[in-house]
Predict the structure.
Amino acid sequence: MSTEILFQAKRNELVAHLQQKGIHDRALVKALATVPRHLFFTDSTLKQFAYEDKAYPIEAGQTISQPYTVALQTQLLELKPQEKVLEIGTGSGYQAAILRAIGARVYTIERQKKLYFKTKTLLESLNISIDTFLGDGFKGFPPFAPYDKIIITAAAPYIPRTLLDQLKVGGIMVAPLGEGKTQVLLQIKKLSETEFEQRDFGSCSFVPMLAGIE
Ligand code: SAH
């Protein structure tokens, strides 16, 4: 069996597992079955584990999020094709690629220079059309604001007001909140310029969201 066919078989198994865990959004399921997660691994010895439902280390002490976490965060965004999404924490680029595969216009920010350049190059080489920026996600990205959706993929010590301001009324933000080893996954709906509705979707574990670039 060729490696690609083997990876596709493993990917299908992973998707079935995610569906059993409650991932049902059809466009998302299709994206998960299509995007080759193994290509987002920097350590080639770990590629064989790419379709395990686990987080793995990538460059610069960071991680590629667990597939279930990526899937749940994406489902909670209630994404429609063509929507404008801002992602904080590009990391490996896998989450951004899933958002793009659903048809969103994706803007993603990474604070670590080395990772930023590496992932930008990878996404370009895969012909995945995503706008990547080096910057501090606490500030959001004003040039393309407001966004329909915002996803934070690092543990936020608090929900930055700047990001809520860059969200459209009627928009949704999904973010892990907390400074401990685990955080709570929040879905925040912006009802008006001053009113928000927040729902808690259980515990998750992310690397910390840090200020400044490095
Ligand atoms: N979405 C990524 C998850 C990567 S882990 C993926 O699919 O692989 C979280 C990433 O957030 C790390 O790369 C980290 O460097 C980055 N990060 C942390 N704080 C940030 C900030 N303030 N602004 C932008 N990126 C940040």
About this structure: The CA atoms of residues 157 and 178 lie 5 Å apart. Residues 62-65, 88-89, 91-92, 94-95, 109-112, 115, 136-138, 153-154, 207, 209-211 surround S-adenosyl-L-homocysteine (CB under 6 Å).
